[in-house]
Amino acid sequence: MLDVEDISVFHGDAQALDRVSLTVEAGKIVAIVGANGAGKTSLIRTIAGMHRPAAGRILFEGVDIAGLPSHRVCDLGVGQVAEGRQIFPSLTVAENLDMGAMLPRARRNRTQNRQRVQAMFPKLEQRLGQAAGTLSGGEQQMLAIARCIMGEPKLIMFDEPSLGLAPTIVHDVLKTIRDLNAAGITCVLVEQNVAVSLRIAHQAYVLENGRVTLSGTGEALLADERVRQAYLGI
Known about the structure:
It is a single chain. With 234 residues, the chain is α/β, with parallel strands linked by helices. The protein has a single domain (2-231), classed as 3-Layer(aba) Sandwich (Rossmann fold). Helix content is 37%, strand content 26%. The protein has helices at residues 40-47, 70-76, 93-100, 110-120, 122-125, 137-149, 167-182, 194-200, 218-223, 225-231, and strands at residues 2-11, 14-24, 29-33, 55-60, 63-64, 78-81, 155-159, 186-190, 203-208, 211-216. A six-stranded mixed beta sheet has the order 6-7-8-3-9-10, with helices on both faces. The chain is globular. The model has no long low-confidence stretch (mean pLDDT 93).
């Protein structure tokens, strides 16, 4: 579904990504792990059209999306749940959901998608008229995911979805990702909890200093001595 081919990204004079390549197969969960500053968020934002690569290609279902504006990337079916949730705090829950449905690809099925996300997140259904900024952190993360689903994505990129959440809420968020994947949505997961992300990932990549240094199945990387020492403290 997604092929990233030798992309390089610069922020001013600083190089964030150096010839990064990876493949995301349809129907899979792919984890991208690495230390802070490794380039994970830069990679997600480049795929999403928020950064323009200096070199390389990004193919989504065979179409080169590298350098396309983010709204066009979204309308092709690439969704993003950004780090820090990025909801609209002064808008109600219902208005946030409506914002997710503004993509041309999603407008026709807006009612069905609203019913879908309200069934997935019953707490949100109870708070449709409430300002999003007054929700708890876990509820805001649910809203961010629900808003993304309203856009009918084929692929969702999750950037640190468990950041700042209590362990029980983290479990719920990761279960939601598994459920979405089971429903046919391809998922890319950037997650600070390396052990958990590798356990649910079909494929995984390790980023270090803007380069892919290891790749394999989630299970294989979880057992890799280098990964265990660097990220799991084992």
